[in-house]
Amino acid sequence: MKEKKIPMRSCVVTKEKYPKKELIRIVRTPEGTIEVDENGKQNGRGAYVKKDISVIEKAEKYRILERHLETEIPEEIFIKLKEIIK
């Protein structure tokens, strides 16, 4: 039987490749809002981040997500990401 292909994505902070299920997707929607995409299917420009508190804090400190999504990231997004990980 043929093996099922596992979709791989790169974390924008660590630059490492992980299976899509091990990452969280943050999306800039066509309307310009920033949302956490828990299903991974929302329309818009997305950036993947590893499910790790230290990676989230590094993304916040160095404004990595702001550079990738080309917009301001509200504090609530980082709070929600930390809640999802816990």
Structure characterization notes:
With 86 residues, this protein is α+β, with helices and mostly antiparallel strands. It has three helices and five strands; from the N terminus they run βββββααα. It has a three-stranded antiparallel β-sheet with strand order 4-3-5. Strands 1-2 form a two-stranded antiparallel sheet. Helix 1 (53-61) runs antiparallel to helix 3. The longest helix is centred in the last third of the chain and has 11 residues, at 75-85. The mean pLDDT is 94.
How many strands, which pairing sense, and closed or not: the largest β-sheet?
3 strands, antiparallel
User: End-to-end distance, in Å?
Assistant: 37 Å
Q: Mind telling me the CATH superfamily name?
A: YlxR-like
Rg on CA atoms, Å: 13 Å
- Tell me, rounded to a whole number, the average pLDDT: 94
Helix percent band: 25-40%
**Strand line-up across the major sheet:** 4-3-5
Q: How many helices does DSSP assign?
A: 3
Architecture per CATH nomenclature, i.e. the level-2 architecture: 2-Layer Sandwich
Keywords, please?
86 residues, 3 helices, Hypothetical Cytosolic Protein, Chain: A, alpha+beta, 5 strands, single chain, three-stranded antiparallel beta sheet, two-stranded antiparallel ribbon, 30% helix, globular
Fold topology:
Elements: E1 8-10, E2 17-19, E3 23-28, E4 34-37, E5 45-50, H1 53-61, H2 64-69, H3 75-85
Antiparallel strand pairs: 1-2, 3-4, 3-5
Helix pairs in contact: 1-3
In short:
Helix content is 30%, strand content 26%. By secondary structure, it is an alpha+beta fold.
